[in-house]
Write a structure and sequence with these properties.
The complex is a heterodimer of chains A (353) and B (502). Chain A is built from 14 helices and two strands. Chain A is mainly alpha-helical. Chain A folds into two domains: 65 residues, no CATH class; 226 residues, no CATH class. In chain A, strands 1-2 form a two-stranded antiparallel ribbon. Chain A is globular and about 70 Å long. With 502 residues, chain B is α/β, with parallel strands linked by helices. Chain B has three domains: 235 residues, Rossmann fold, CATH 3.40.50.300; 173 residues, Rossmann fold, CATH 3.40.50; 68 residues, no CATH class. In chain B, the strands form five sheets. A six-stranded mixed beta sheet of chain B has the order 6-7-8-3-9-10, with helices on both faces. A six-stranded mixed beta sheet of chain B has the order 16-19-20-13-21-22, sandwiched between helices. Chain B has a four-stranded antiparallel beta sheet with strand order 2-1-4-5, with helices on one face. In chain B, a hairpin with a 2-residue loop joins strand 21 and strand 22. In chain B, helix 8 packs across helix 17 and helix 14 runs parallel beside helix 15. The longest helix of chain B has 16 residues. Classes of the chains: A mainly alpha (353), B alpha/beta (502). Chains A and B meet through helix 8 and helix 9 of A and helix 10, helix 11 and strand 18 of B.
Chain lengths: 353, 502
Amino acid sequence: MKNSNKLISVLVPVASVLLAFAIGCAVMAGLGANPLVALQSLWTGAFGNLRNVGTTLARATPLIFTGLCACFAYRCGVFNLGGEGQFIIGSVACCYMATQTGIEGFPAIVLCLLAGILAGGIWALIPGLLKVYRGQNEMIISIMLNYVATLFMGVVYTNWLREGSVPQTMSVPDTTKLSRIFGLRATTAFIIAIVVGLLIYYFLFYTSKGFQLRAVGLNMTAAEFNGFSVKRYILFSFVVSGAIAGLGGSAELLGTQYRLINGFAAGYGFDGVAMALIAQLHPLATILVAIFFAALRVGSTTMQAATGVPTSVSDIIQALVIVFTVAGLAMVKLSQFKAAIDRIFARKETVAS
Amino acid sequence: MDAFLRMEHVSKRFGDFYANRDINFSVRRGEVHTLLGENGAGKSTLMNVLIGLYQPTEGTIYLDGKKVRIDSPAQAVKLGIGMVHQHFMLVEAMTVFENIILGDRNTRGIFIDREARTKEIQALSARYGLEVELDKPITEISVGAQQRVEILKALYRGAELLILDEPSAALTDLEVEGLFDIMRKLTGEGKSIIFISHKMREVLRISDRITILRAGRTVCTVDRTETNGEELANLMIGRELAPSHYEKITEPGEPVVSLEKVDYHKESKHNGLCGVSLSVGRREIVGIAGVDGNGQSQLAQVVTGVLTPDAGEVDLKGSRVAQFTPNGFILESVSHIPEDRNKMGLIGDMSVKENIVLKSTDTPQFSSARGFHLKKRAIRDYAEQMREKYDIRCTSVEQEARNLSGGNQQKVILARELEGQPDLLVAVHPTRGLDIGATRFVHDTMIDAREKGCGVLLISADFDEILEVSDRIVVMFEGQVMGVFSGKEPPIQEISLAMAGK
């Protein structure tokens, strides 16, 4: 039973990806392109050479952060849909640190990242507190705070930290930028993202507190009856989740964008939620899924240039992967489906014996 | 008089368990027929068969002399069977009128002929004295009025036979009088009523005949005029007392927990405590007897720190409890077998192994560096040991707890709760839904704990269980302690009367 469960949790996303690509190919064929050629150029664009790999990883980095942010909160049974807002608030705090305090170099990097972590954590504390002490719905509050954060960032780059007459902040000093890996587009931000993913994985599955946090997420009542402080875990998971997003925002600012500008981080929050769901809340799987989605996005530009298949076909594939996985995971929970699977396994066993 | 409804040799089996076995039951036109029985006696199952939610495993149902098959609730409605559930099935945001016509299949076209419908409903309402305000939303009317809406809804759909499931549970005394008037009017017009209740007084007042169920079987059907409360209580609990397997202790040790005039939501008759004083000593099993929903759940949650009492004192091992938190009680070696093992006891999606060590992953036995690294190996080995010791039948300790049978789930909880040698064990319905073997195992384990010096507070709706293991029996009724009896040669008669609130 256990093994078949694990198998299914891997099979569903894989099957979803294949199915999404199959439909994507049909669309490509309908547009008059050769799907095989298009797919090949998609691959080349994403992973064809070291430079492209670097670009893909750079694109994946913010998605990994927001994905881990969603993943961590969901593990504790709370739905933090505010990853985007926490990401933005983190980057705003980071931007202030980097451009206004006059510190530069490595200490500045550390301080900037810490500022992002802190700001993201505090931003996430708001829905956390409202949920725990006022029973408010954390999803709605955290979503609404995304708009607040986006507009707040707007004030920052159009007024307070505006550079001259252009609606954007000034750039982060060169010495405070995160260094690139082998001169590629990917920076140490990617390394930080991987480390965070590994830390979360370790925390959730190898520490006592992580174990208790998962227990709270799976059954709050039983966790309470068994003496865990449910409220504290909920607050904790919100703050950590926000801190991860905040760190992601800072790393994105220092590594890729260098300045706040209209459209910074747009869509990252919900992308992160989708990554976490497809990865079924496994932190390491979240990293892989984020890289996969980044590859589709980066590769699609090459595909468009080479074969004329518009990048929106890649968007279709991404959307279908999400739809199929979520639907597939819901389907395997149905009792009829479970019964059918059990029958198949039972038959195999009888054949084997 | 011939019977309107006849159920003959009806059985309903779930797996190997018979919830109903060879039930014979009939209801005449114009009578109030009461179904009486303890929790788990099979009343709900039988009614669910009647309204088409369950299909009987065996047996036949006759309605008006004709054999019928009721394969859906819609079919039951068509046959004229209406049920008023204990927890009302009303759409709260809608008005009374909308609720009554909801789901009516005779709608012609897409528009609702409001006027005609209103007239129909008003006629019904006047005929049976079911006063309701049609335009009010459900949220704005009293519980008694909501019940009238439910009855009206059933009548509007043409019910000839009404099932009222614990209709008086949520009502005030005055509202109960009103309900009884309505019931009499209904039967006066030839409708039949199946009345389900625990309350002896009410049963004796309103019933024409009474059928007693016990352990899934019909015990007998008696005429109201030929019986009395005592006889009914005895029939319901019904026992030639089998001698207990266990030796009873008459001199317990010093108290582990004692409650002094504890109140919790005292105005609530069914979910509160009112001036409860009792104590559990070391080496003693105190059984709380009583019909479910007389404050037992709240008692269990107070003595495990889940609920904070409104008034009164709780002493744990001689010192007063200042703050009620589950963790505080766990640190004082209080163990808890909660009433709902899936909801409160186990993390169903976690493995057997993880559930066994749920409370103790912070200890050096299972993690190093103050919880920063789990000793997975030690956890696994320990779980294997417990699996052996408590005879937990699972494919492996990695199996998810939700996939275990009820008995084995309970053993997982026992392994977790009893292995640390607790000072107090609070066990709520510890054998509910378990087969005989597993039940025996749980009882043996509790006696074992007692022998090791643990005080046990056993709360159970199963009177047999209480008699079997308790050294002292405390009866609760409507949140109050009705009496304390010796567990050695217990006075069954007195206890059953106390359980009925006398």
